[in-house]
Write a structure and sequence with these properties.
- The protein is mostly helical.
- The chain contains 23 helices and 8 strands.
- The strands form 4 sheets. Strands 1-2 form a two-stranded antiparallel sheet. Strands 3-6 form a two-stranded antiparallel sheet.
- Strand 1 and strand 2 form a beta hairpin.
- Helix 1 crosses helix 6, helix 7 packs parallel to helix 12 and helix 12 crosses helix 18.
- The protein starts with a helix and ends in a 5-residue tail after the last helix.
């Protein structure tokens, strides 16, 4: 961590020597009213926007941690000819992620380089967030409109929790294993600075995450416009709150964390609060009417499901990333794709609206089009903002259903699962056995969360002994702690991190 943080913090300190219009290149100077970032209200909004910008980096949620490497690890997409991926690991570093050979040096890329880039991108965003928090915590509330400081603090605390939780889910061993309880691989960084922060256990990190989220929940509930109805002069607070870590996103993340830790009643309660507020937020499931709007190329403009996300991260370059990896002009070995025989089997009905909306092409040219953008400039205005889903309604139903199976009743679990599956126009599961319901929920993660970088986490949370291969028509990968747990970057060892 030491070497990485020296680079990060020197960079941020250097940026602070310039006008706040230069703060992470977030906002044009015309929107900034002072040359010192934290001397005025606008500077704080600019700084917080900068954290979101860092999170949208291609090595973070803009690509690697959503539609690319983490998605490959979930076995939902593949990148190489099925018959060659296993005998020839060196076809490319993507194959290493697909087969969980993380330290592999291939002919076409170093897997550890990508893992290091993910680590650095996440902790870079955390560093910037901590710098903001340190200034905001001591700032007189009189600088802001009443309630605004509480919203900003809540957002920043929740973003720190969000980032750390994903670092835990990637680099800590499965929580259900002995190693997951004892190993200390990542730090929970709560201070801005170059001081070395020792790694902590999963329990310690989860406790700190939940403390940050509880503070965020308390401060935001009666102040965030999305939950309180308050209005503010500031453009930042009067815009689309679903593009920010809003109050209901905090509760949704709490549900995700509680489920990971096995706190099922708390997970159920948090998820149900979000589900109950869906109408007020303007959040709902995709419908066939939404798919009636198409561009001049006959592509669905709403296939990214903007109406479903509770928190979405704007990634302006998502279309470029998708085009690069999924373009059909690439050779068979270079192109992401959906395994033509395997993919339809993941769905219980060919009428499932997700298959219609998210799949494009056929055979070896079938690929995930969930975040596809307009291919012609004249169609751009038809599409919603380029947003990646970070927390969405479907996941809340999955969390609530799984938590209910453990803490409420199998009847409630089945009821929630039925609502989700019915909305997707797919097959509806009717079994009543608890284990069968839990198995169906895991299958539904694969259907529902494809393209969001969440499927791998679902398997890891359960410490599933095997995962169905996404790049072959049949077969499974036998999983273990090592396959579920990429090693931390070598630079961390060089900086003195041990576990």
């Amino acid at each position: 961590m030491k070497k990485i943080y020296i680079v990060v913090f020197v960079l941020v300190s250097h940026l602070l020597c310039y006008s706040c219009g230069d703060w992470l290149d977030v906002l044009p100077q015309s929107q900034i009213t002072s040359e010192k970032v934290f001397d005025n209200e606008d500077g704080y909004y600019s700084a917080l926007s900068g954290v979101y910008l860092k999170m949208a980096d291609k090595n973070a949620y803009g690509n690697s941690m959503t539609v690319c490497q983490l998605e490959i690890m979930g076995q939902t997409i593949s990148m190489a000819q099925a018959s060659l991926i296993e005998p020839y690991y060196d076809q490319g570093d993507f194959n290493g992620f697909a087969t969980y050979y993380y330290p592999l040096q291939t002919r076409f890329g170093n897997i550890e380089t990508t893992i290091t880039a993910i680590w650095k991108a996440a902790y870079n965003a955390i560093a910037n967030d901590n710098l903001l928090l340190e200034n905001l915590e001591t700032q007189d509330a009189g600088l802001f409109e009443p309630g605004a400081k509480e919203v900003l603090l809540g957002e920043a605390l929740a973003l720190r929790a969000y980032l750390h939780f994903d670092m835990l889910r990637i680099f800590q061993p499965p929580y259900a294993t002995e190693e997951g309880k004892t190993q200390k691989r990542i730090p929970y960084k709560e201070a801005y600075g170059m001081d070395f922060t020792p790694s902590a256990s999963s329990d310690t990190i989860l406790n700190r995450i939940l403390v940050d989220l509880k503070r965020a929940e308390t401060m935001m509930k009666d102040n965030d416009p999305i939950s309180s109805g308050k209005t503010y002069r500031a453009t930042y607070l009067s815009g689309d709150r679903k593009l920010k870590m809003n109050y209901y996103a905090v509760r949704a993340l709490q549900a995700r964390v509680y489920l990971w830790r096995g706190d099922y009643q708390e997970a159920y309660d948090a998820a149900m609060e979000v589900i109950g507020a869906a109408d007020d937020m303007g959040v709902r499931f995709l419908t066939m009417d939404d798919l009636s709007t198409k561009d001049s190329q006959n592509d669905y403009v709403n296939r990214s499901c903007p109406m479903e996300y509770i928190f979405g991260l704007q990634v302006d370059e998502i279309g470029d990333y998708i085009d690069y990896y999924f373009r059909t002009s690439f050779s068979y070995f270079e192109r992401f794709r959906l395994q033509s025989t395997r993919y339809p089997k993941f769905y219980s009905s060919t009428g499932d609206i997700r298959m219609l909306a998210w799949k494009k092409g056929s055979g070896s040219n079938m690929y995930l089009a969930k975040y596809g953008r307009a291919t012609l400039e004249k169609d751009l205005a038809l599409y919603p903002r380029p947003v990646v889903s970070m927390l969405k309604l479907g996941e809340m139903y999955l969390i609530a259903s799984e938590a209910a199976a453990h803490a409420v009743s199998t009847g409630e679990a089945l009821r929630l699962l039925t609502v989700l599956q019915s909305s997707r126009l797919g097959g509806v599961f009717t079994g009543t056995d608890k284990d069968a319901i839990l198995d169906e929920i895991l299958k539904e993660y694969r259907r529902e969360m494809i393209g969001d970088g969440q499927v791998f986490y679902a398997y890891k949370r359960r410490n599933a002994p095997e995962i169905e291969k996404g790049y072959l028509a049949s077969g499974v990968i036998t999983m273990d702690v090592e396959k579920y747990t990429p090693d931390i970057p070598s630079a961390e060892y060089d900086g003195g991190r041990v576990y």
